[in-house]
Design goal:
Blueprint: H1 2-13, E1 41-44, E2 47-50, E3 52-54, E4 59-61, H2 65-74, H3 94-100
Antiparallel strand pairs: 1-2, 3-4
């Protein structure tokens, strides 16, 4: 159940305006960033999660604090020890945070 939730969550977060992030060269309908990595699961903090496609790494990744920091650094943002509140405080929604990046 958590793997499926992660799959749908990453696709939903990458689609805040109805223009989902897709991966070139994948079959139509199976090209969103969760679809490409379907069933490539791993445990993270004792919870089974599914990976998603990273265009930066050209690979399926399991999100971690390190990958979040690197993604934000590419966008010119730093966490500064306050988690996501370092980027935007208060955070009105995850979708808005993704749009702002």
């Amino acid at each position: 159940m958590t793997s499926t939730f992660c799959h749908e969550l990453v696709e939903m977060c990458s689609d805040p305006k109805g223009d989902a992030w897709t991966v070139n060269g994948q079959p139509s309908g199976l090209d969103e960033i969760g679809d490409v990595c379907n069933l490539l699961d791993a445990a993270l903090g004792g919870v089974n999660v599914e990976s998603y496609w990273s265009i930066f790494d050209q690979a399926c990744l399991i999100p971690s604090a390190w990958s979040l920091r690197r993604t934000l650094a590419v966008a010119g943002k730093k966490l500064n020890g306050r988690g996501l509140r370092s980027v935007q405080d208060p955070i009105p929604s995850l979708n808005q945070l993704v749009i702002n990046l």
